[in-house]
């Protein structure tokens, strides 16, 4: 009769990315010599009833041939970025009758997948370029809010709009979600007027300031995300970070940098002739969300009532989830 296999112990997870990881554990020399297969059970942490063998000879979610450890796990599941998982393993010996002699399940180990790496963001950027459309001129950045927001800024912050932590809207793997502080601005204009829209989903008051205050040669421009929310509209998230600031240092190793004078989304082409004003342009076929990483004073611009008669609440994006089925804005890694 075959001796039982010992339970795998000291499970270790390493080299975790947004859609892969490597796993290793301790086995006795005898088990290492005779193990033919590894059974790996993976489930999201919120699933409190993880999938386990109903019987010892029924394979779990993944049956892998025994290989030297650590073993890479990728492609077997559509792992999601920034998601907590539980994993457990069994070792097994496939016997001549096709059945498996298996060990007891190991302890359950928890880990969390990572953000999109630069290569994944580059894939997302390439997709976004295909949707950007032609460039249109604009002259101001603007930010719509309710009166209470601006009252608070004046009363409690001395007229200084302070950066807030980016929420979890958009692609789950974007490195700025829940990690980078900034102030969101818009710059999209209406086709017929070349001016900001009359309506807003964010509030009836609009702060606007000249484009050159945020988009100038002392600013670094980064691509952060491309997503939609089950609609025909697509959003591009860009980060504007003054050179040498904490925001710039955060983005420099995590996000693709764009040429401020030549890119498909947001440009400052500089004056066409000596004495002319700079020319600012934005992409026409996507909605740009521009995150500025430093405080902005209200006295740098003006707060005015917008002229529209209603607010388009359906376009709000706070913590909105990306459509995982959209073929336009998804890439070939975990959602």
UniProtKB/TrEMBL annotation:
Sorted alphabetically, the keyword list is:
Glycoprotein
Domain Phytanoyl-CoA hydroxylase-interacting protein-like C-terminal residues, every copy: 112-335
Concerning CDD domains, the annotation shows:
FN3
Which Gene Ontology CC terms are recorded?
cytoplasm
Task: Enumerate the Pfam families for this protein.
Answer: PHYHIP_C
Do you know which InterPro entries this protein is assigned to? FN3_dom, FN3_sf, Ig-like_fold, PHYHIP/PHYHIPL, PHYIP/PHIPL_C
Q: Which Gene3D superfamilies match?
A: Immunoglobulins
Subunit structure, as described in the record: Interacts with PHYH and ADGRB1.
Describe the function of this protein: Its interaction with PHYH suggests a role in the development of the central system.
What protein family does this chain belong to?
Answer: Belongs to the PHYHIP family.
What protein does this entry describe? Phytanoyl-CoA hydroxylase-interacting protein
Q: From what organism does this protein derive? A: Kryptolebias marmoratus (Mangrove killifish)
């Amino acid at each position: 009769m075959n001796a039982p296999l010992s339970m795998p112990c000291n499970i270790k997870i390493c080299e975790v990315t947004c859609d892969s990881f490597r796993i290793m554990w301790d086995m006795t020399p005898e088990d290492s010599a005779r193990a033919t297969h590894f059974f790996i059970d993976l489930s999201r942490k919120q699933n409190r009833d993880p999938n386990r063998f109903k019987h010892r000879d029924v394979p779990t979610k993944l049956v892998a041939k025994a290989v030297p450890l650590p073993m890479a796990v990728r492609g077997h599941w559509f792992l999601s970025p920034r998601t907590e998982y539980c994993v457990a393993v069994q070792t097994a010996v496939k016997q001549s009758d096709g059945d498996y002699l298996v060990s007891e399940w190991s302890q359950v180990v928890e880990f969390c997948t990572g953000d999109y790496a630069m290569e994944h963001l580059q894939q997302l950027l390439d997709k976004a370029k295909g949707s950007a459309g032609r460039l249109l001129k604009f002259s101001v950045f603007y930010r719509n809010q309710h009166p209470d927001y601006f009252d608070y800024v004046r009363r409690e912050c001395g007229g200084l709009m302070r950066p807030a932590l980016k929420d979890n809207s958009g692609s789950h793997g974007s490195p700025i979600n829940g990690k980078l502080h900034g102030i969101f601005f818009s710059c999209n204009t209406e086709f017929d007027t070349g001016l900001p829209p009359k309506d807003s989903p964010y509030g009836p008051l609009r702060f606007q300031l000249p484009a050159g205050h945020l988009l100038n040669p002392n600013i670094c421009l980064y691509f952060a995300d491309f997503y939609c929310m089950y609609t025909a509209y697509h959003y591009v998230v860009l980060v504007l970070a003054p050179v040498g600031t904490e925001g710039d240092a955060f983005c420099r190793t995590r996000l693709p940098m764009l040429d401020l004078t030549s890119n498909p989304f947001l440009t400052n082409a500089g004056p066409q002739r000596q004495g002319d004003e700079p020319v600012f342009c934005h992409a026409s076929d996507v909605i740009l969300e521009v995150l500025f990483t430093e405080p902005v004073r209200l006295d740098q611009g003006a707060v005015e009532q917008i002229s529209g008669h209603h607010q388009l609440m359906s376009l709000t994006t706070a913590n909105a989830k990306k459509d995982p089925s959209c073929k336009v804005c998804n890439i070939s890694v975990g959602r």
